Description:
The structure holds two protein chains of two kinds. By secondary structure, chain A is of the alpha+beta class. Chain A has helices spanning 42-56, 83-91, 108-121, 150-153, 164-174, 180-199, 234-238, 270-276, 301-312, 329-339, 354-357, 364-378; strands at 20-27, 31-32, 67-71, 99-102, 127-135, 210-212, 220-222, 259-269, 282-291, 319-324, 384-391, 395-402. Chain A has twelve helices and twelve strands. In chain A, strand 3 (67-71), helix 2 and strand 4 (99-102) form a beta-alpha-beta unit. The longest helix of chain A is centred in the middle third of the chain and has 20 residues, at 180-199. Chain A is globular. Chain B has three domains: 2-328, 2-enoyl-CoA Hydratase, Chain A, domain 1 (Alpha-Beta Complex); 349-528, Rossmann fold; 535-670, N-(1-d-carboxylethyl)-l-norvaline Dehydrogenase, domain 2, CATH 1.10.1040.50. In chain B, the strands form five sheets. In chain B, strands 14-13-12-15-16-17-18-19 form an eight-stranded mixed sheet, sandwiched between helices. In chain B, strands 1-2-3-7-9-11 form a six-stranded mixed sheet, sandwiched between helices. The two termini of chain B are 21 Å apart.
Amino acid sequence: MFQSAKGQPGGRSAGAVRDVVFVDGVRTPFGKAKGVYAETRADDLIVKVIRELLRRNPNLPPERVDDVAIAATTQIGDQGLTIGRVAGILSGLPRSVPGYAIDRMCAGAVTAVTTTAASIGVGAYDVAIAGGVEHMGRHPMGEAADPNPRFLSEQLVDFSALVMGETAENLHDRYPGITKDRADAYAVASQEKVAKAYANGEIQPDLVPVAARHAETGWELVSKDEPPRPGTSMSALAGLKTPFRPHGRVTAGNSAGLNDGATGCILAAADVAAELGLTSKMTLVGYGFAGVDPEVMGVGPIPSTEKALARTGLSIGDIGLFELNEAFAVQVLAFLDHFGIDDDDPRVNPYGGAIAYGHPLASSGVRLMTQLAREFSEHPEVRYGLTAMCVGLGMGATTIWENPAYEGAN
Amino acid sequence: MADSGPGTITTATLDYPDEVVTHARVRYAELPGVTGPVALVTLDNGHDHTRPSTFGPAGLRSILAAVDEIAAHAPAVAAIAVTGKPFIFAVGADLSYRSSLTDPAVVRPSLHALGELGHDAFRALGGGRLGDRRVPTFALVNGAAMGGGLELALHCDYRAFSAAAAPIALPETFLGLVPAWGGTFLLPNLVGAENAVTVAVENALSQNRTLTGPQAVELGLGDVLLDSADFLERGLVWVGAVLRGEVDPAGARRRPERGPAWADAVARGRAVADARVHGAAPAPYRALELIAAAETVSPDAGFAAETEALADLSVTEELAASLYAFDLTQKRARRPVGGPDPKLARKVTKVGVVGAGLMASQLALLFARRLLVPVVLTDIDSERLDRGVGYVHAEIDKLLARHRLSPDAANRLKALVTGSLTKDVFADADLVIEAVFEDMGVKKTVFAELEAIVGPETVLLTNTSALSVTEMAAGLAHPERVVGLHFFNPVAVLPLVEVVRTPSSDDAAVATTLAVAKTLRKNAVLVADAPAFVVNRLLVRFMSEVLGAIASGTPVEEADRALEPLGLPMSPLELLALVGPPVALHVGEIMHAHFPERYADPAGLRALVEAGRSSFYGPPGPDGRAAVDPEVAGLVRAATSGPSAGSADGGSADGGSAGHPGALSGAEVRERAAAALAEEIRLLLDENVVAEAADVDVCMLLGAGWPFHLGGVTPYLDRTGISEKVTGRRFAPPGVATIS
């Protein structure tokens, strides 16, 4: 971890740190808030994920899991009570396996991965389960929040900072070159890529189907994402309302929706993974978090990526695959513009993104990693990939991974 | 009347306006590698798990409609899977449907039609016949599956059970019915007659014992057991594996053993039924006939026979009484009638038990286990005290050994139960119960001593079985805190307590006692302070008729067996041995003192006690049957005034004789005993000892273990005409707990 990838090939930047590998990742199909999971509890969603992880990795003795870190943004009700611990008990993990809850809004699952990975890196853990869950239907963003009045009285942040759609409009103001048309075109492409990924069977293998109850219509087996809208056209998007501003640019069509879902992954020290015969789908190179003005939280991934690149000694040109969370098209485009990447660069979100899949806040980070891991397996010519996402209240989160299947730059 | 006459009732016209309808909702699931969707049927009555899904006419029609919908679905389905709402698969027929039929003429045809409709619906779903196609069917038993719920699962080709599914049972014979929607045919043909008898007869007649998911799979009811956390998801994965041919659950099943084993199992079932109901209730025997026939008959014939049995049983007095009794135990027994506002109950944080004998020790254990507060036993004899506390600790160790308690919980309970030679330890007790020698003087002394130590609001309870609680409280500074709390032996088993309110008891003390009874998980019946309250008053009256018959020359066995047609859990003399003659004598003497015209002087019993004998029977012989001890019978007869039987001419071994001038026939003994009960119950009600006859029935069902098919006892006395003959009136009009 924090390998100085270029400076010391095969070495490490400092100290006695161990390599951390991404063993496996799965998720529930994502749902629309008030949709398929309207009558399904959040804790039940994460339980399905943890159990599937253990089933898919029978070589991992459950008692070898050193911690369960589960993120949720709104940690009340069925997402409260220390969700990581509750989920472990409900999943049937041995009582000896501890668990905890994490919150960094949209980057919750990313933070669950980085904190447990760091614990593995310093040798405190061998194996961890990290993931996230968000049921925005049961827990709308900001539920029961009580912002300090100083935010307003001292104008610490603009009021728009608390409304994510308004921060996206603010971003369009900052980058006039990112037009609504460009955002819509990006969104259409995302929907197309998701439809193609589904058609090619890239997504289904890493989903755990969920039986969702409907008191009025009976149990339903949810085995694919509910939010995608295949066949979305520019003209269809052009007619959508701009709910955050009159004649604005941000619509339901060029942003992620309000969603329900859960994700999880197994992380292990590389030597432990080898000892137990676990897969190593990715190796963690490093990560970075950064803060920005909350009013333009969408730029967060730019500094967090700069930071992660600097710490790992890599440059943007070393990155062969990008999994960028598409909270808003404008925020992805700002990132691409900053790094000089084309809107339709094939390295970016090859399976599409959150505009189609949905973005159940604290769970999304591991979806990015799971997809990056599958993309790595199909791209042995790629050595490094990254995931990046913007975070509410003005942050960015980036992780950089190395592809174990890398066969050299041919 | 023409259009509601019996002749017009068919499966199509069956109607129950008050039905809480369990809907069969259909959705379709795609499974990997399976061509065509799987129809997933959810049984859901729209309520949470506290109102489990049941089947009435509309619910059964909903299943038929679901199958029609599935048959019409495009693309064609690959299979049907059925499951339930959270925690509940389905718990069988809606019993309130039978109770709702007030016109006796429509009962049989209606239940016959309901039987047919159930078979039609379950065979349609479980049979998987969609037009000219046949698809595999699966029951995904996610939760409670009883009666018709389990039968629906049995109709399916394959079954998965959740490890958390419970209860699983066929309780019909417990209620006076048979599993009539396929259970008696399908179950033995799936798991063999032996297991079928266990589930459908033995368990049902053993206080309605039920199975868990793992037990059900172990017995062969299920093909696979799956964890509850993702039961439905994994269940559907399993469905997919079966459909793709990767697993063959049917091939893995044990084949039921036919021939002699089948007959042996049915014979065992008859022995079980005889031991439990002594032929007095028809349902288990009818179920066994059906199980016996299931070995060879066709499904059509088996199912038709079930429907006939259901229709026949639906018009039996035993069923009417059972449904009444079931309702009493579910409702009236859980909410005592006539109690004060429960909010008046005071908090109980420490309990005192005066005495350290067996009853006191049992009470201490119960209070400690259920209230989880310190319980102090006192006795003036240190050896007895050590024995009492030692008994409690030993019982806790037994629970620990049987894994009924964790080591921590056992430590906690042991620490809660302590002993003291002085009563000053009761100073901070909120409740003190006395379980000392049954003597008014002793008990009054105890209460007077207690009053000097405890606070003015401490509730003082007595576990007396027959003494006047009012008199016990008289002379105290605070008689308003004295209440009777009468338990039945064995304390841990019998669910009844009689809560005895005296004229001076105040609402707070009674409310506290009722609240404590509830926490002890006992069913309380509020009774007035009358001699021996309800259960003992009736049992002693009943027993004294039997003892009187013996004394007057009826052979012991004949008198004792005279009550067998009632199907009581034990004979009067077995009961006497269980209760112990000294206790029976004590109550008998008190009753004789109060009501000499109805309760004879228990001289025979006194002779038995004085001779140190505990039973009319000797130890069991090689055949397992205990023989009458002629010496005891002689003692009893010699002590009883009236015609002597000692010089009887040959007759039976005990010196009694059918030919003796004072001897009664079994029928006469039975008639006298039942008449005595009817008279005594009427007097109880006239004296306002309890509010209604239903309370007497609750007492006999839960305090004496009297059977459902008698409805406790008053439905039996009404339907046999005894109550009317003896008291000039019935206890309840026809239709409440009886048919006629």
